[in-house]
Amino acid sequence: MFRNTMPRYEVLSETAMAALDKGWRRLVSEVGVEFVSDRALDLFRAAGQRVEDNTVFLDPDFLLAQAAKAPREFDVAARNPKNSIHIGGDSMAFGAVYGPPFVRQGQVRRDATMDDFRNFTKLAQSFDGLDSAGGVICEPNDTPLDSRHLDMTLALQTLTDKMYMGNVVSGVNARDTIEMSSILFGGRDVIEQTPATISLINCNSPLRWDDRMLDAQWEYSSANQPVVLTPFILMGAMSPVTIPAALVQQIAEALSGIALSQLIRPGCPVIFGSFLSNIDMQSGSPTFGTPESAMGLLCTGQIARHFGLPFRSGGAMTSSQVPDAQAGYEALMTMLPTFLAGANWVMHSAGWLEGGLVAGYEKFIVDIEILQMMQAQFTPLEIDEDSLAFDAHVEVGHGGHFLGAAHTMDRFRTCFYRPLLSSSENYERWMRNGGVDAEHRAEKIYQQRLAEFEAPPIDDAIRAELEEYVIRRRAELGD
Q: Which of 86, 148, 207, 212 has the smallest CB count inside 10 Å?
């Protein structure tokens, strides 16, 4: 995984931080946060918080005290220990796109299938820049709704040896993920010692945590599996239009969710989540890769560090319908501030199209190129006698060139980033080779990766036990 030791880009002054602090404190205490769960309400009530119907009016200092119980850094295990990740500090871990019901393959946009899910899982395994395939890489609409989470989890566990995300559609799905993780890693006590999943718990912004999310959160936090408490904010729709107002709301929602996890199991790992962008005020459509979302991301990083919490944000997001120039520059508009802010857990790092409605095969490769370039760009320079290359100047002298110098010959294979996708051919050579553009080069790359894919080895007894569990649970769920 990648360690980002470059300085963080912080945009908020002490005065601005103080104003945001005052804002979220007022919001949680005067407006409150709604929790559609009797169990959650009972916990808050027992902790001395005022509860009226489903709304909890929260003491700001209580929220801070609860957040302080969460670990600042923690590990998440992969079945291949070399692929285990660290969350927090300088660490950045990257997962693929999450949640689209559709896929785009060339010029075809269609419903996602289980074959697509497995293909994207294989692609995620095949690129070292990604630390995880993620969770719901796409929604396989050709499988039964009540049991598809079993097949998805099985694919993540067997087609990759990287860490994976848990299913959060319901408490039932969360329990199945925990049970299957226990099988894979050798027992629930093992995964409670070192977590094996990260799960996304979205707030129904503004200021509402719904019952399905809370049921899943309860299962994962009870099992000591980290959850990403994420406000889902599109400014102008789910929050006021100003960035400061959205940031205040985001803090209120994230801290209230984090507090609940600590009430469920004190000390369980959590991640301060952010999904912050805006809508097009002419059409009402969600927009991504905007200057406002970039600014919100930079602010979120500074805010999470202020609270001493690891945070999730960023990715390679775009509103574009196809993997065109817009898709590229909007993805970079989100990925660059992701690195500048030092996000610890980055979802949607590869494959996101059309505002998250579509997982794109070619866009997956475009995003891998962006991700790899960012990782190279944010690797600090090694400055020493060898890299200063004084002897090369002595060898070449005045007015010469360095192509054949010993220093160059020793390093030409590794001295520069070698693109996965980009072409630097001159025009004549490019035309002789078919004049292939980036989208079609990406198509060839993903097809080749899938053709060459070999699943990482897994113990036959464990595989059999996982498959038996899936078959039994599918029958119990009625599918």
A: 86
Note the residue count of the chain: 479
Mean pLDDT of 388-406: 96
SS3 state of residue 85: strand
Cβ count within 10 A of residue 281: 12
* Three-class SS state of 334: helix
Identify residue 257 by its one-letter amino acid code: G
Please report, for the chain, the start and end positions of each structural domain, with discontinuous segments joined by +. 2-9+67-377
Provide the whole-model pTM: 0.97
Question: CB of 94 within 8 A of CB of 133?
Answer: no
Give bridge partners of residue 111 from the DSSP assignment: 102
Nearest residue to 67 via CA among 257, 231, 225, 279: 257
Strand, coil or helix: what is 105?
A: strand
Burial per residue of 223-255, b for 16 or more beta-carbon CB atoms within 10 angstroms, e otherwise = bbbbbbbbbbbbbbebbeeebebbbbbbbbbbb
The fold of 2-9+67-377 is: TIM Barrel (3.20.20)
pLDDT band, very low/low/confident/very high, at 479 (cuts 50, 70, 90): confident
